[in-house]
Amino acid sequence: MSEKILLEQNASPIQKRHMGLKATRALSNTAIYALLIAISIIWLVPFVCILLQSFRVESTWQVGYVIPQKWGFDNYVNLFQTDFPRWYTNTFIAALVTAVLQTVIVLCMSYTLSRFRFKMRKPLMQFMLILGMFPGMLTMIILYRVLKDLGMTQANAVPGLILVYIASSGMGYYVSKGFFDTIPKSLDEAARVDGATRFQVLKKIILPLSKPIVIYTILTAFMGPWGDYVFAQYISFGTSSGMNVAVGLYRWLNKDQIANCYTMFCAGGVLVAIPVTVLFMCLQKYYVEGVTGGAVKG
């Protein structure tokens, strides 16, 4: 300890300043990590509580304690004796189809706006940007009327939801276009000189170099339908066969059913969270690269 004090006393001004900066950096990093840990704990507490309650089998209603007195898988077993599998399937179909179609539309739109120069290109981009600022709830009434006329409400709500989810997909070009702008156009020109078509350039050159943004687009397209409640409730009301998992589970929280379905609701919430959690854990590297890469140029 004394040797350390002697070294500090004999240090030059530059060394002292360097040690001061190092100490300040260590202190700030400690404070930041402590804050992040506290935020993480606060954020995880509700999920931990839901997970623990899903294994509680001594009662099915809400209780004043978190750790179950009796553990078991009864809630998960009983869950599959309800309409939950149908709700889960509806949600998975809507999310999967939307992810595929929306990704194709977004990537094609982004590639077109990034690589082509045509009349009214900038006004079109500005128009879509301004149009996207209006909340989607403004169109809910007219969308419901259109879907009802097409027979895509209540029991047939899943096709209606898919149609609405992908209808304005092209307007979400911002991040993908920014990523495509970072890829040199000389690669496109070289491929075109060799006789490649525009589609071949996109498929064989641009997309292999754009793996992060493709995965980012797929994840965001999948997440929207997977967690949607407002619009799904609006067009699938009153018919259990057409509900998605968010609407179906929320029905169990009303005053008539919560006493018998609360622990099953917690079990359903755990099963809903598993696919998204696994996807993000496996693909978080590409997700971050897609966001940061697409934010470089606009």
Report what the structure shows:
- With 298 residues, the protein is mainly alpha-helical.
- Helices cover 72% and strands 0% of the residues.
- It is built from 14 helices and no strands.
- It has helices at residues 2-10, 13-54, 74-79, 84-115, 121-131, 140-149, 157-167, 174-181, 185-193, 198-209, 211-226, 230-235, 245-251, 258-294.
- Helix 9 (185-193) crosses helix 10 (198-209).
- It is flat and about 70 Å long.
- 28% of the residues are buried.
- The model has no long low-confidence stretch (mean pLDDT 84).
Number of E strands: 0
The share of residues in extended strands comes to under 5%
Category by helix and strand content:
mainly alpha
Apparent shape: flat
Order of helices and strands: HHHHHHHHHHHHHH
Instruction: State the low-pLDDT regions, or none.
Output: none
Tag the structure with descriptive keywords.
298 residues; mainly alpha; 14 helices; flat
Question: What would a concise description of this structure say?
Answer:
By secondary structure, the protein is mainly alpha-helical. The protein has helices at about 1-10, 15-55, 75-80, 85-115, 120-130, 140-150, 155-165, 175-180, 185-195, 200-210, 210-225, 230-235, 245-250, 260-295.
Helix/strand layout:
Layout: H1 2-10, H2 13-54, H3 74-79, H4 84-115, H5 121-131, H6 140-149, H7 157-167, H8 174-181, H9 185-193, H10 198-209, H11 211-226, H12 230-235, H13 245-251, H14 258-294
